[in-house]
Every structure is written in C-alpha cells, then in structure tokens.
Prior knowledge:
mainly beta; 4-stranded mixed beta sheet; two-stranded antiparallel ribbon; globular
Amino acid sequence: MATNGAKGGGRHGAVRERSQTHNSKTDQWVKRDTETGRFIDVKQDGTPFKGVRKEK
C-alpha cells in the first residue's frame, strides 16, 4: 500500500490493486479495482489521480 512519507517528502510507492483510465466522453479520470474490474471513483477536475498506475 502506498504511504505518505515524512512531512513534505511525498508518497512512497504506487497504490496497489488500483489503476486509472481516461474517459474521453466525459474527459475525466476513472479509478478501477484491478481484482474485480469495478469502477471505484471519478476525478471531477480532469487531472489524473496521484500515485495510481495508468492503464494502457
């Protein structure tokens, strides 16, 4: 699991068992559970999630 480091140090590693993909119709990023394939969350501001790997 990704953890937050010391204050101002940033995140250590990527979030496991999660991925994100870009929805071109809504122009938003969608976070997905890699085990079940279900969508978890949608980012409203149009920027990608931090620390989550992108699907190809």
